[in-house]
Amino acid sequence: MRELLTKRDIQLTKSLGQNFLHDGNQLRRIVNAAELKPADRALEIGPGLGPLTELLVAEAGEVLAIEKDGRLVSFLREQFAGRANFTLLHDDALEYLRRKEHDWQDWKLVANLPYSVASPILVELAMSPRRPERMVTTLQLEVAQRLMARADDDDYGILTLLVQLDYAPKEWFKIPAGCFFPSPDVDSACVVLTRRPEPFLREDQRPMFVRIVKRAFSQRRKMMLKLLKQEWPVEKLTAAFAELGISTMERAEKLGLEQFTALTKILHP
Questions:
Q1: 24 and 113 together in one domain
Q2: Residue 111: which residues within 8 A CB-CB, separation 6 or more?
Q3: What is the CATH number of the domain that holds 216?
Protein backbone atom coordinates (compact mmCIF):
# COMPACT_ATOMS: atom_id res chain seq x y z
CA MET A 1 0.00 0.00 0.00
CA ARG A 2 2.82 2.37 0.86
CA GLU A 3 4.44 1.82 -2.54
CA LEU A 4 1.17 2.26 -4.37
CA LEU A 5 0.35 5.51 -2.58
CA THR A 6 3.86 6.84 -3.19
CA LYS A 7 3.70 5.92 -6.86
CA ARG A 8 0.46 7.88 -7.26
CA ASP A 9 1.63 10.70 -5.01
CA ILE A 10 -1.34 10.25 -2.68
CA GLN A 11 -0.99 11.71 0.81
CA LEU A 12 -3.58 10.21 3.14
CA THR A 13 -5.84 12.66 4.94
CA LYS A 14 -6.32 12.15 8.67
CA SER A 15 -9.59 14.14 8.65
CA LEU A 16 -11.12 11.50 6.34
CA GLY A 17 -10.18 8.70 8.75
CA GLN A 18 -8.04 6.98 6.12
CA ASN A 19 -6.59 3.93 7.85
CA PHE A 20 -6.67 1.11 5.30
CA LEU A 21 -7.09 -2.48 6.44
CA HIS A 22 -4.63 -4.65 4.52
CA ASP A 23 -4.28 -7.87 6.52
CA GLY A 24 -5.59 -10.73 4.37
CA ASN A 25 -6.68 -12.89 7.31
CA GLN A 26 -8.76 -10.10 8.83
CA LEU A 27 -10.28 -9.19 5.47
CA ARG A 28 -11.39 -12.79 4.89
CA ARG A 29 -12.73 -12.94 8.43
CA ILE A 30 -14.91 -9.89 7.75
CA VAL A 31 -16.23 -11.33 4.49
CA ASN A 32 -16.98 -14.66 6.18
CA ALA A 33 -18.93 -12.83 8.88
CA ALA A 34 -21.08 -11.24 6.17
CA GLU A 35 -22.13 -14.72 4.96
CA LEU A 36 -22.33 -13.48 1.38
CA LYS A 37 -24.11 -15.52 -1.27
CA PRO A 38 -23.92 -15.09 -5.07
CA ALA A 39 -27.31 -13.35 -5.09
CA ASP A 40 -26.39 -10.87 -2.31
CA ARG A 41 -25.91 -7.14 -2.74
CA ALA A 42 -23.07 -5.59 -0.74
CA LEU A 43 -22.66 -1.93 0.20
CA GLU A 44 -19.12 -0.79 0.96
CA ILE A 45 -18.42 2.67 2.33
CA GLY A 46 -14.85 3.94 2.14
CA PRO A 47 -13.23 1.23 -0.03
CA GLY A 48 -9.86 3.02 -0.06
CA LEU A 49 -7.51 1.02 -2.26
CA GLY A 50 -9.96 -1.84 -2.61
CA PRO A 51 -8.57 -4.90 -0.77
CA LEU A 52 -11.97 -5.63 0.80
CA THR A 53 -13.70 -4.66 -2.44
CA GLU A 54 -11.76 -7.37 -4.26
CA LEU A 55 -13.21 -10.05 -1.98
CA LEU A 56 -16.72 -8.59 -2.11
CA VAL A 57 -16.75 -8.53 -5.92
CA ALA A 58 -15.72 -12.19 -5.92
CA GLU A 59 -18.41 -13.26 -3.43
CA ALA A 60 -21.48 -11.04 -3.98
CA GLY A 61 -23.77 -10.65 -6.95
CA GLU A 62 -23.65 -6.86 -6.77
CA VAL A 63 -21.28 -4.44 -5.01
CA LEU A 64 -21.89 -0.72 -4.55
CA ALA A 65 -18.92 1.23 -3.19
CA ILE A 66 -19.01 4.87 -2.09
CA GLU A 67 -15.70 6.75 -1.90
CA LYS A 68 -15.26 10.42 -1.01
CA ASP A 69 -11.60 10.87 -2.02
CA GLY A 70 -11.38 11.63 -5.74
CA ARG A 71 -7.77 10.39 -5.94
CA LEU A 72 -8.86 6.96 -4.72
CA VAL A 73 -11.89 6.98 -7.00
CA SER A 74 -9.59 7.25 -10.02
CA PHE A 75 -7.52 4.32 -8.82
CA LEU A 76 -10.57 2.16 -8.06
CA ARG A 77 -12.06 2.81 -11.48
CA GLU A 78 -8.88 1.53 -13.08
CA GLN A 79 -8.55 -1.38 -10.67
CA PHE A 80 -12.09 -2.68 -11.16
CA ALA A 81 -12.71 -1.70 -14.77
CA GLY A 82 -14.72 -4.37 -16.52
CA ARG A 83 -16.23 -5.85 -13.35
CA ALA A 84 -19.88 -6.09 -14.29
CA ASN A 85 -21.11 -6.48 -10.71
CA PHE A 86 -19.24 -3.42 -9.38
CA THR A 87 -20.54 0.15 -9.15
CA LEU A 88 -18.51 3.03 -7.72
CA LEU A 89 -19.94 6.35 -6.55
CA HIS A 90 -17.78 9.40 -5.94
CA ASP A 91 -19.68 10.93 -3.05
CA ASP A 92 -19.77 11.72 0.65
CA ALA A 93 -21.46 8.59 2.01
CA LEU A 94 -23.23 10.29 4.91
CA GLU A 95 -24.59 13.03 2.66
CA TYR A 96 -25.61 10.41 0.09
CA LEU A 97 -27.56 8.45 2.70
CA ARG A 98 -29.29 11.59 3.96
CA ARG A 99 -30.01 13.08 0.54
CA LYS A 100 -32.95 10.82 -0.18
CA GLU A 101 -34.52 7.61 1.06
CA HIS A 102 -32.87 4.45 -0.27
CA ASP A 103 -34.11 0.88 -0.24
CA TRP A 104 -31.40 -1.22 1.46
CA GLN A 105 -33.65 -4.10 2.54
CA ASP A 106 -31.87 -6.65 0.35
CA TRP A 107 -28.38 -5.28 0.99
CA LYS A 108 -25.59 -6.05 3.43
CA LEU A 109 -23.24 -3.35 4.64
CA VAL A 110 -19.69 -4.71 4.64
CA ALA A 111 -17.16 -1.96 5.25
CA ASN A 112 -14.14 -0.59 7.03
CA LEU A 113 -15.92 2.64 7.90
CA PRO A 114 -14.05 5.94 8.14
CA TYR A 115 -13.77 6.34 11.90
CA SER A 116 -14.70 10.03 11.83
CA VAL A 117 -18.22 9.31 10.56
CA ALA A 118 -18.80 5.66 11.52
CA SER A 119 -21.45 6.31 14.19
CA PRO A 120 -23.70 8.67 12.18
CA ILE A 121 -23.49 6.38 9.15
CA LEU A 122 -24.60 3.37 11.21
CA VAL A 123 -27.46 5.33 12.81
CA GLU A 124 -28.57 6.64 9.41
CA LEU A 125 -28.74 3.11 8.00
CA ALA A 126 -30.24 1.56 11.13
CA MET A 127 -33.02 4.15 11.39
CA SER A 128 -33.86 3.96 7.69
CA PRO A 129 -37.33 2.50 6.98
CA ARG A 130 -35.68 0.10 4.51
CA ARG A 131 -32.59 -0.84 6.47
CA PRO A 132 -29.95 -3.43 5.44
CA GLU A 133 -30.44 -7.04 6.49
CA ARG A 134 -26.93 -7.22 8.00
CA MET A 135 -24.17 -4.78 8.91
CA VAL A 136 -20.59 -6.03 9.22
CA THR A 137 -18.34 -3.11 9.90
CA THR A 138 -14.88 -2.28 11.19
CA LEU A 139 -14.65 0.74 13.46
CA GLN A 140 -13.03 2.06 16.63
CA LEU A 141 -13.10 -0.41 19.52
CA GLU A 142 -14.88 2.07 21.78
CA VAL A 143 -17.67 2.47 19.21
CA ALA A 144 -17.89 -1.31 18.80
CA GLN A 145 -18.29 -1.67 22.57
CA ARG A 146 -21.16 0.82 22.54
CA LEU A 147 -22.90 -1.11 19.76
CA MET A 148 -22.59 -4.40 21.68
CA ALA A 149 -23.43 -2.99 25.14
CA ARG A 150 -26.28 -3.98 27.43
CA ALA A 151 -28.15 -1.99 30.07
CA ASP A 152 -25.95 -0.93 32.99
CA ASP A 153 -22.73 -1.38 31.00
CA ASP A 154 -20.38 1.62 31.03
CA ASP A 155 -20.63 1.85 27.21
CA TYR A 156 -24.44 1.67 27.11
CA GLY A 157 -26.13 4.78 25.75
CA ILE A 158 -27.78 6.59 22.86
CA LEU A 159 -25.83 4.86 20.08
CA THR A 160 -26.55 1.44 21.61
CA LEU A 161 -30.30 2.00 21.63
CA LEU A 162 -30.64 3.71 18.26
CA VAL A 163 -28.90 0.80 16.53
CA GLN A 164 -30.15 -2.10 18.67
CA LEU A 165 -33.74 -0.98 18.17
CA ASP A 166 -33.61 -2.84 14.85
CA TYR A 167 -30.38 -4.84 15.03
CA ALA A 168 -29.33 -7.70 17.26
CA PRO A 169 -25.59 -7.73 18.05
CA LYS A 170 -24.32 -11.12 16.86
CA GLU A 171 -20.55 -11.09 17.40
CA TRP A 172 -17.45 -8.92 17.37
CA PHE A 173 -13.69 -9.38 17.18
CA LYS A 174 -10.70 -7.10 17.73
CA ILE A 175 -8.37 -6.17 14.88
CA PRO A 176 -4.81 -5.15 15.84
CA ALA A 177 -3.55 -1.71 14.79
CA GLY A 178 -0.74 -3.33 12.79
CA CYS A 179 -3.32 -4.68 10.32
CA PHE A 180 -3.92 -1.13 9.05
CA PHE A 181 -1.86 1.34 7.05
CA PRO A 182 -1.14 3.73 8.52
CA SER A 183 -1.64 2.19 11.97
CA PRO A 184 -4.40 4.06 13.84
CA ASP A 185 -3.84 5.50 17.31
CA VAL A 186 -6.87 3.62 18.63
CA ASP A 187 -7.84 -0.05 18.86
CA SER A 188 -10.27 -1.37 16.26
CA ALA A 189 -12.91 -4.08 16.04
CA CYS A 190 -15.36 -5.61 13.59
CA VAL A 191 -18.98 -5.95 14.69
CA VAL A 192 -21.72 -8.07 13.15
CA LEU A 193 -25.29 -6.77 13.47
CA THR A 194 -28.31 -8.65 12.11
CA ARG A 195 -31.67 -7.04 11.40
CA ARG A 196 -34.41 -8.12 13.78
CA PRO A 197 -37.11 -10.22 12.07
CA GLU A 198 -39.88 -8.14 13.67
CA PRO A 199 -39.49 -4.44 14.56
CA PHE A 200 -40.13 -3.31 18.14
CA LEU A 201 -41.84 -0.12 16.98
CA ARG A 202 -43.89 1.17 14.07
CA GLU A 203 -42.25 3.77 11.84
CA ASP A 204 -44.47 6.55 13.20
CA GLN A 205 -43.35 5.75 16.77
CA ARG A 206 -39.62 6.02 16.07
CA PRO A 207 -39.26 9.82 16.35
CA MET A 208 -40.76 9.57 19.85
CA PHE A 209 -38.29 6.80 20.76
CA VAL A 210 -35.37 8.96 19.62
CA ARG A 211 -36.65 11.94 21.64
CA ILE A 212 -37.03 9.85 24.78
CA VAL A 213 -33.62 8.21 24.50
CA LYS A 214 -31.76 11.44 23.76
CA ARG A 215 -33.47 13.31 26.58
CA ALA A 216 -33.00 10.41 29.04
CA PHE A 217 -29.25 10.26 28.37
CA SER A 218 -28.71 14.02 28.14
CA GLN A 219 -27.30 13.92 31.69
CA ARG A 220 -26.40 10.35 32.59
CA ARG A 221 -26.16 10.86 36.35
CA LYS A 222 -29.56 12.48 36.71
CA MET A 223 -32.77 10.62 37.39
CA MET A 224 -34.55 9.85 34.14
CA LEU A 225 -37.92 11.16 35.34
CA LYS A 226 -36.45 14.62 36.07
CA LEU A 227 -35.03 14.82 32.57
CA LEU A 228 -38.13 13.55 30.77
CA LYS A 229 -40.51 15.92 32.58
CA GLN A 230 -38.87 18.77 30.65
CA GLU A 231 -40.88 17.50 27.64
CA TRP A 232 -43.77 15.44 29.06
CA PRO A 233 -46.28 16.02 31.90
CA VAL A 234 -44.97 14.56 35.16
CA GLU A 235 -48.35 12.93 35.88
CA LYS A 236 -48.25 11.04 32.60
CA LEU A 237 -44.64 9.99 33.19
CA THR A 238 -45.32 8.85 36.74
CA ALA A 239 -48.25 6.72 35.57
CA ALA A 240 -46.15 5.22 32.75
CA PHE A 241 -43.28 4.41 35.12
CA ALA A 242 -45.71 2.74 37.53
CA GLU A 243 -47.29 0.70 34.73
CA LEU A 244 -43.87 -0.54 33.61
CA GLY A 245 -42.53 -1.12 37.12
CA ILE A 246 -39.77 1.49 36.74
CA SER A 247 -38.66 3.37 39.83
CA THR A 248 -39.05 7.14 39.62
CA MET A 249 -35.48 7.33 40.98
CA GLU A 250 -34.02 5.25 38.13
CA ARG A 251 -31.34 6.50 35.74
CA ALA A 252 -31.54 5.83 31.99
CA GLU A 253 -28.51 3.52 31.93
CA LYS A 254 -30.43 0.98 34.06
CA LEU A 255 -33.29 0.55 31.55
CA GLY A 256 -33.17 -2.02 28.78
CA LEU A 257 -34.28 -1.63 25.17
CA GLU A 258 -37.63 -3.30 25.84
CA GLN A 259 -38.41 -0.80 28.60
CA PHE A 260 -37.59 2.15 26.36
CA THR A 261 -39.80 0.81 23.58
CA ALA A 262 -42.64 0.11 26.03
CA LEU A 263 -42.36 3.66 27.38
CA THR A 264 -42.44 4.99 23.81
CA LYS A 265 -45.70 3.18 23.10
CA ILE A 266 -47.30 4.67 26.20
CA LEU A 267 -46.16 8.24 25.55
CA HIS A 268 -46.80 8.16 21.83
CA PRO A 269 -50.00 10.09 21.06
A1: yes
A2: 43, 44, 45, 46, 47, 52, 136, 137, 138
A3: 1.10.8.100
